[in-house]
Automatic annotation (TrEMBL):
It comes from Leisingera aquaemixtae. The modification 4-aspartylphosphate is found at residue 53. The lineage of its organism: Bacteria, Pseudomonadati, Pseudomonadota, Alphaproteobacteria, Rhodobacterales. It comes from the Bacteria. This is Response regulator. Pfam families: Response_reg. PROSITE patterns: RESPONSE_REGULATORY (PS50110). Residues 4-119 form the Response regulatory domain. InterPro entries: CheY-like_superfamily, Sig_transdc_resp-reg_receiver. Keywords: Phosphoprotein. SUPFAM superfamilies: CheY-like (SSF52172).
Amino acid sequence: MTAKVLLLEDDAGVRFTFNMALQEAGYDVTAVTSCSDAISALTELPLDVLVLDLKIGEEMSLPVADYAALLRPDIPVVCITGSRLFSGGELFSLSRNIRWVLRKPVNLSDLLSMVDHVTGRVPAMAAS
């Protein structure tokens, strides 16, 4: 079964790159550009993992992670940030579903490894 990823990223180029990398790795990706769209997707779609850019315009995506924790306590969240906020790991205490934080610029193999890890998926190359 293909794992379903919700990708929240407001930068079009980064969103395209992450979306393509995740799709090429075999994930079913829903990419959104706003926190409200992410919350709608959470209520409407059966998702396996959230990949959230921490800053979406002037907003923070932490309310999306919090909503996910209430709606689906088991759904893992991977946060991506270029911000120096929370550099001491404080994000992990702000939402119980946050499993990993990746700093921008994000290496695509790191992103894929984190998503593989939190979904329990063994990458095709490692399985052979």
